[in-house]
Amino acid sequence: xxxxxxxxxxxxxxxxxxxxxxxxxxxxxxxxxxxxxxxxxxxxxxxxxxxxxxxxxxxxxxxxxxxxxxxxxxxxxxxxxxxxxxxxxxxxxxxxxxxxxxxxxxxxxxxxxxxxxxxxxxxxxxxxxxxxxxxxxxxxxxxxxxxxxxxxxxxxxxxxxxxxxxxxxxxxxxxxxxxxxxxxxxxxxxxxxxxxxxxxxxxxxxxxxxxxxxxxxxxxxxxxxxxxxxxxxxxxxxxxxxxxxxxxxxxxxxxxxxxxxxxxxxxxxxxxxxxxxx
Length: 278
Description:
It is built from six helices and twelve strands. It is α+β, with helices and mostly antiparallel strands. The protein has helices spanning about 5-10, 10-20, 100-115, 150-160, 210-215, 245-275, and strands at about 35-40, 50-55, 55-70, 80-85, 125-130, 130-145, 165-170, 175-185, 195-200, 205-210, 220-225, 230-240. About 30% of the residues lie in helices and about 35% in strands.
């Protein structure tokens, strides 16, 4: 039996033979992450945008800001509305039509991460309490799916938020008139950078940054999101529980990635700032 046929008939056994040697079929070590690339301001018509690549996985995020009336119970709080779409061109596993369940779960989790990590303060989006606030519509599209869509989506969202500039708005609460000054733009304040790292368990071995193929074979999936060296979001699915030592190892790996991603973002933003000053 040739190797390709063996992999097709016995995918778990195929992976197990590699994992027992502390390596994966793609040549990576079990804890090794794929290359990460971030590009800012990739959509000219958006108020903020970014594209992120993790290996072959690609997610683009575009943000549009609109004015709206706040909720009655939260008169001084704006809105952040993430919407994740997994494009049919990203993988044969997805079909055209309404957002799949996976995309809807990712959308809700993105909103939870922004709130839990205090990435942005929604009160910063308030113009006139009880009258007018900003709504940030964050559209994220997966263009190429090769695992860890959620990781790429979070990083893309944070990167896009770092490019958002809002115009100065004057609102007369008596007449309800609004004047928008597009010549005066203020950058949105991003208070923290949440960074997720996903892990899966295959044949009893834990591996980092899984590909789409590895996600399909996993018995357990775990995502650890770190913000300022603290866990701000934690999600585990699957039937196999992880022991304390395994969770500690995953958290340590997630902390390393957080530092790496923050350094990368800081370096890119600094270069962008220097180029604009030239």
